[in-house]
Amino acid sequence: MRIAVAIPCYKVTQHVLGVIKKIGPEVTVIYAVDDACPEESGAFIEAHNTDPRVRVLYHLHNQGVGGAVVTAYKEAVANGIDIVVKIDGDGQMNPALLPLFVRPLLDGRADYSKGNRFYRPESVQDMPPVRLFGNAALSFMTKLSCGYWNIMDPTNGYTAVRTSVLSELPLDKLEKRYFFESDMLFRLYTVRAVVKDVPMDAVYADEESNLRIGKVLPEFLRKHCSRLWRRYVYSYLVRDFNVGSLYSLSGAFLVLSGSLYGAVHWISGFIHSEAATSGTVMLAALPILVGIQCLIAFLHHDVSSVPTEPISAWLDKSA
Predict the structure, then answer these.
(1) Which fold has domain 3-236?
(2) Which of 75, 107, 149, 195 is least surrounded by CB atoms within 10 angstroms?
(3) Average pLDDT over residues 148-174
(4) Distance CA 247, CA 242 (A)
């Protein structure tokens, strides 16, 4: 297996050489992507780096972390690499953990692995409360929109992926900036790839993160809603029509019809100063209660439908 490391480089000249130095001998090539860095990270690496595995790639215009990683992904696919591990260049991801991320892919247990800073209580003791709450909220939204109910910490950028799976994804359509990791999970679900979490500790260097939870949360909410709808249509109406489809459609219809019926009679009673009869209340409440039960059953079905069989096994055989 040929393993590559992708390092997006943007204002990381203080740490990137140290990150490269810690990458072990199991890695074949290291792609350092200068994302139009104002500090000229690419030139800095070429001038001071002594590791022959490093290849510097340049962007003429800043594309964000997603754009930088996609550039490295395309290069890895073109060069016949088997696994690509993405590590940030700011020193907040320990390269010594790389074997832990690669192992599930080598063992055939996963197509994609990612870090999880919430696995152990000790790992989040030093995490700021605002960041802790923001990541928890984003994690739940990602479970809904992407379908991977078995993962946590979706914005964690420490990842590893099989290039055979990358070849099945529309890389040019992936989000370029902070939503990249979440969009990657959405795209992986569409091809039914298996995703595994790898426990890791949260590390904060002296680099200040550009991610502001309060600023990106509304944007993330909008994009998650869009992907939730697209995933539902694709998974339950287009690619398949199963019991989950019946539960969801029946539940939505019953809740909506019961709510409308109740609202119409409540407005009518308010206007005419007439109290609703017990029969009217039951006709409004019963469809809502049954509809909620159907939606809960749909949610249970969706949770049990998380991909469990890696697709890289048959992709490698068909290649």
Answers:
(1) Spore Coat Polysaccharide Biosynthesis Protein SpsA; Chain A (3.90.550)
(2) 107
(3) 94
(4) 9
